[in-house]
Amino acid sequence: MELDGKVAVVTGGTRGVGAGIARAFVRAGAEVVVCARRPPDVPVPKTEFVPLDVRDTEAVGHFFAGLPRLDVLVNNAGGAPYRPLTQAGAERHVRVVELNLLAPLTVSLAAYDHLRRAHGSIVMIGSVSGSRPSPGTAAYGAAKAGLDHLARSMAVEWAPEVRVNTLVVGMVRTELSHLHYGGPDAVASVAQTVPLGRLAEPSDVGAAAVFLASDAAAYVTGASLLVHGGGERPAFLDAATAHKEK
Ligand SMILES: NC(=O)c1ccc[n+]([C@@H]2O[C@H](COP(=O)([O-])OP(=O)(O)OC[C@H]3O[C@@H](n4cnc5c(N)ncnc54)[C@H](OP(=O)(O)O)[C@@H]3O)[C@@H](O)[C@H]2O)c1
């Protein structure tokens, strides 16, 4: 199997995208530790849960110091509620940047010695929000843009021992999709905007993460892999077509 004998940590691996990644890693033969602030409601079989707030630098340091070894780190913990810039104080936006950009940096630094020894790799979970305007989640989009850039610099600084890549993820169907995209009808209409006709499943992201973490990607570092079902059809095309049809 692709990840036989490897030890992986998936931050935020207790639900949603992270649980999909954890499940895919277990299937690929890895020993998987998931961490989050709260234990999972539905644990992924054969994973170990460790409570950890990735924004707590000291706790992050202790966690990695206590691990016997590590081959793969998946910086997945992240996200943000819909919140236009002027509808919250600056400190709320700062917390979003802490979770989505500064925490992955802190966690990667704490994991570095293990990963260097193991000739391991890091997978950052980015978002298409980092490569287009992200109204309503501006701080999140900016943090994800920064994360992708951080990964590219890290890949150069930490080569040849540690590979670092980003999955640039589009819309995913999770337990919390309704908070981002609305109920089933809304999700169905949103899905029609995606060329592949559906939102991603957490398992789609998991499969791409397994690839980046495996020896099949031995020459892939500093890369950003789009997992977005073809992305967004440019809005101007529909506007122009509608105009021509009049
Ligand atoms: N869902 C999407 O459509 C989508 C699209 C593009 C990219 N992504 C990215 O995919 C990743 C996962 O998103 P998701 O939708 O699966 O989110 P989610 O369902 O909200 O899950 C987030 C996970 O991160 C953990 N977490 C949150 N804050 C944490 C903290 N401070 N310390 C440790 N763990 C923390 C959560 O557990 P606790 O709350 O118990 O800590 C949970 O396990 C994020 O990086 C997100 O930006 C998601």
UniProtKB/TrEMBL annotation:
PROSITE patterns: ADH_SHORT. The keyword Mitochondrion does not apply. Keywords: Oxidoreductase. Pfam families: adh_short_C2. Coiled coil: none annotated. SUPFAM superfamilies: NAD(P)-binding Rossmann-fold domains. Belongs to the short-chain dehydrogenases/reductases (SDR) family. This is SDR family oxidoreductase. It comes from Streptomyces plumbiresistens.
